[in-house]
Amino acid sequence: MFNMSSYAEWQGGVVNRNYQILQSLLKSSEVNRLVAVDFLPFSFKRMVRHWLENIFCKPKYKIIYQDLTTRAQWINEKLIVFSTIDSFLAPKKVVPKLNLILNKLGRQNSIKSKRVVISYFPMFTDYFGQLNQDLNVFEAVDNWLEHPSYRHYKKRLENNYQLIAQKSDLVFTVAEPLVGFFKSLGREKDIYWIPNGVDAEHWQKFDNQVPNDLAKIPHPIIGYLGIIQDRIDTNLLEYLAEKNTDKSLVLVGPTWPEFLKKWRESKEIKKLRRYKNVYFLGRKSYQDAPKYIHQFDVAIIPHKVDKFIQFTHSMKMFDYLACGKPIVTTPASGVEKFSHLLYIAQNYLDFNNKIQKALQEDNSRLKELRIQAARENSWQSRSKKIIRIINEQLV
User: Domains in the chain, start-ordered, CATH in brackets?
Assistant: First the structure.
């Protein structure tokens, strides 16, 4: 599995679709072993960070392979993590080193099994036909061509997406419009839309525990949990802060580097900090996150309505639902299927009006309906569908 994050980041509290599917696959009796390939760095800054965090540092687990640029560790009986910076220094070495690890594992494996490559990482495509695989699967999480962080790699991504569309045996997409994107690349079959899911039980924890940094913030709380990055409409947040001086606007999550200029905050963040009813609480771990959502009186998804957002599918929508919270969101792919449980706003005025409506209409019956919707969209059900489709393809 070629990942869009590193295992160390996941252990540090970063949680995304890639992590959730990996965890679900590890729990499946149909998965014999999983080799997780950490995010392959392609910039100097990311390479240095990756080397320090995952290769140079003292190992936490049993080492299978180690050299100056690469480390492979046996995390548990099922999981091996492969980390390398060769993707930046010597890209042609990545696959041979992976084969070295796979061959070693193959000699130790008495169970005859199929080898499946699942990639979440469109920046690397050298694995096709090179890992003795029986099946190539690509999981499209967003459209990286539209992501501002990858605008300098657009030509490379265009070529890679074309190759992925041609050579993958299966394509899974997080958002329905991504099905159309792959069809535009000439891919006509074996494309499946599998939306995000949720671990509802995780979000049911800590519903009565008030975090210290929230204890003195007055209610009602308009809350957002997630990364503060350029997909966030900061002008909308400023509008909400001005219109709701009797409420607290609480932003829980780290500020994305794109919003920091030479280690100083951007103009957008500085403007928001001027409001006395706006609170930045910083990054919280996945384990602690439920404590914060449970203190929200209304949860918001204030994303910009642009081309990037149409290729996404909100995980936080399900997280909010699992906590039973009323949700106000801008229009985005997939939210219309939950329009009976969400408040979908068309403009700033409508967003603010629907916050007031959400607060007024909230009740225990609606809370239970939201929680039930989350339970019906579990990561376990998503991974079972993925495994079933893979097995059908392998026959």
Answer: 7-197+379-394 (3.40.50.2000), 200-375 (3.40.50.2000)
d(CA 37, CA 157): 19
Give the per-residue pLDDT at 269: 80
- pTM for this one? 0.90
With CA atoms as reference, report the closest residue to 228 among 262, 174, 268.
268
Provide mean pLDDT across the span 106-110: 66
Of 317, 318, 327, whose CA–CA distance to 354 is shortest? 327
Helix and strand numbers (H, E) in the chain are: 15, 16
CA 219, 222, 228, 230 torsion-angle sign: negative
The H-or-E segment that residue 81 falls in is strand 79-84
Q: Which residues contact 296 (CB under 8 A, 6 or more apart)?
A: 221, 222, 223, 250, 320, 323, 325
Task: Point out which residues pair with 71 in neighbouring strands.
Answer: 66, 83
Whole-angstrom distance, CA of residue 162 vs CA of residue 182: 8
SS3 (DSSP) at 248: strand
Q: What is the pLDDT of residue 109?
A: 64
Q: At what angle do helices 17-27 and 379-394 cross, to 10 degrees?
A: 70
Is the pLDDT reported for residue 168 higher than 70?
yes
pLDDT at 260: 52
3-state SS, one letter per residue, for 117-137: EEECCCCCCCCCCCCCCCEEE
Whole-number Cα distances in Å, 118 to 277, 324, 331:
45, 33, 30
What are the tokens at 212?
């210290």
Mean local confidence (pLDDT), 277-305: 94
pLDDT of res. 262: 41
